[in-house]
């Protein structure tokens, strides 16, 4: 069973003539690390919002782990985790306090919350700082807690929007290594990034999106080899062009 199955998906925002998503079809298997790559305004944010159950669509079919949107939305939400690009934490609470709130939102029992939070804080190197307020953390530390919050309820699929943007090299390496471990534990990862080299090394498969369409998808090495390009970044620029994209 695919983790995500999308058939002929379409979405146009009110007041816009150009669709944000245009007859898009895509299948992502369970256990993949799938990189969704595209310039600003390509449609990737709209697509992720639809898959995360926070945006409606106009036509097409979307199923998450065999459950169809929007009919089964309440059954889907507990199965997914989301780590947005903007830090989604309470800055005046400690890391542990934030995770207790998140665990409570997902209906976790207190003992399970404490055990899971302790496990993840240790895995991400934050155990010694768990009782510090988030607003005293470095950017890399905030990114790690942001990711931990999305993992608290053991989701089967996790959506990551630019999880390594603006952080130090050490935090970046820890996050990427931890994502590989989480994936080996059985979690499917959907990942967006503008860092092509990072995506090339991390993802089992990528999809390059522009103007609401998936232009190409496949294993990064296979796509690069078949295109004759020197790297995934070269292929990405070949497909999407070098024109600046300032719209979001």
Description:
With 248 residues, this protein is of the alpha/beta class. The protein contains nine helices and ten strands. The chain has a six-stranded mixed β-sheet with strand order 6-7-8-3-9-10, covered by helices on one side. Strands 2-1-4-5 form a four-stranded antiparallel β-sheet. The protein is globular. The two termini are 33 Å apart.
Quaternary = single chain
Q: Strand order of the main beta sheet, please?
A: 6-7-8-3-9-10
Report the portion of residues in β strands: 15-25%
Which of globular, elongated, flat, extended, rod-shaped describes the shape? Answer: globular
Topology:
Elements: E1 2-11, E2 21-29, E3 33-37, H1 44-51, E4 59-64, E5 67-69, H2 73-76, E6 80-83, H3 95-105, H4 110-123, H5 139-151, E7 157-161, H6 169-184, E8 188-192, H7 196-202, E9 205-210, E10 213-218, H8 220-227, H9 232-240
Parallel strand pairs: 3-8, 3-9, 6-7, 7-8
Antiparallel strand pairs: 1-2, 1-4, 4-5, 9-10
